[in-house]
Sequence to fold (284 residues):
Amino acid sequence: MTQPTDIQGEHLAAALSLAASDVPVLPLRAGKLPFGNCPACADNACGGRRNMKTPGPCACPAPCHGWAAATTDPAVIESPSWMRAWREAAAVAYHPGGAGLTVVDLDSAEAIGWARASLPATRTVPTTRGEHWLYQGAMQSANAIRPGVDIKSTMAYARWLGPGTGTLTALSDVIRALAVKKPTAVRTTAVTVPAMAGRGACPHRTPTYLERGIAMAEQRITAAREAVHATVYRTFLAVLSTHGRCGCLTEAHAARLFTAAQARGESSRHCTEAWTNARTQLGL
Fold:
C-alpha cells in the first residue's frame, strides 16, 4: 500500500479509530461533499444519487454515496478506491444514526442560545460557525427546523470534529419533537351506517366514548419504545375497526394520531401508509 501523506494519514487514522468504535465513517471532499467511492462515480459524475432513492445513471454494485457509503469495515476504509479518496479528502464524516447518535447542528450564536434555553444539556463539539450537540439515540433527520438548526441522525452524515466535551445525554422526546412537522390533512372518509329502527343514534358518536378511544390510542403510541411502526399500524387498525364505519372519525382525530406517531419518529409518509393499509385491511 502506498504510504499516505501526513494529512491523508490523519484522516485515515481518525476514520479507522472511529470504525473500531462502531462509528460508520466516510471521506468528504472540500465543501463537505461526499466522494463517489467507485470509479464510475469519480468526481461525483453521477450526481451522488446512487442508492439515495433518487433516479440516476450510476450502476454501482453497492452503495457508494453519502451516508449510505459510511462503513466500519477497515478493509473498505483502506481499499484502493478509498485510499485515493483519502488523498483528496478535506475531512472525515460519520453517519450519526448508524452509530446510534443524533447531532443537533447549531450554526449561529443565536441557535446556540436557543439550544441552551430549550434543550437538555449534553456533549458539545465546537464547529466552524457554532456547535454540534450530541445525544445518545437515533431519530429521523430534519433540516432547518428553525433558523440555523438542523438535526442529523438517520440517512445523514456529519463532519467528525472531535469527541467533544460533556456528558452524553439520552435522546429525549423534546429532541424528537423538533423534527415533527404539522401533519397534512388526512382523508378519513368512513362508511355511514344508518341507525337501525329502535336503536337511535350510533353510540360511537357519543363524545365521551370517542374522546376516550382517541386518547387511549395517543397514549399507546406515545408509550411505544420499540417496534414503533408496528405499534402505530396496530393502533390505527384498532381505532378504525371501532370508529371507522359509522362516520364519527374526523380529520382532527386522525391529525391527533398522526401527531403522536410523528413525535415517536414516524414520518408523515409512514403515517399515511399505515392509515391507508389499515383502512384497506378493514375494507373501508
User: Anything to note?
Assistant: The chain has ten helices and ten strands. Residues 49-57, 183-201 have pLDDT under 50 and may be disordered.
